[in-house]
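cron nightly-structures :: item 1 of 1
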Amino acid sequence: MRAIEVSKTIQIPEDVEVSLDERKVTVKGPKGTMIRDFHHAPISIELDGKTIRIWAEWPRKKESSLVGTIYSHIQNMITGVEKGFTYKLKVVFSHFPVTVKVKDQRVLIENFSGERSPRKAKIVGDAKVSVQGEDVIVQDLNLENVSQTAANIEQATKVKRKDPRIFLDGIYVYERIEGMEK
């Protein structure tokens, strides 16, 4: 038996402003502005003062899960414009000293396992990548840009055809922070 309605509500903080045009959500906060279009989703979104309501009537499994997914997306947008997101990655090597450089929209990982050509990882969206000694720091307002960029960097240093318990070289995420550091 299906539920009559699945619904979730979000309370908007004082320093954040949200506007809704059909299913296009715009969130403005102290750190910046984010816009996201949810026209593809068969659910309803309503803005009433400082409350956003996301719901689906007589939902199937897909619509029920979409309510929770869009709730999470909007919650992440609010957190992003309020605080931002930071991922910290650690450069780990045992023998060959690895150097990491940022060039245009790519991260270059040089001398990984003694390789002559650098490994490359794509920077997604407007994410800002900085290298501070052994740490690589990825920051942005959009959680998806930050996490995908960090995943691209981690995947670029994946060791293939060797025992991962012995060859631990790579770049690994070690901390996720809600908030951006200077």
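cron nightly-structures :: done
The chain is about 20% helix and 40% strand.
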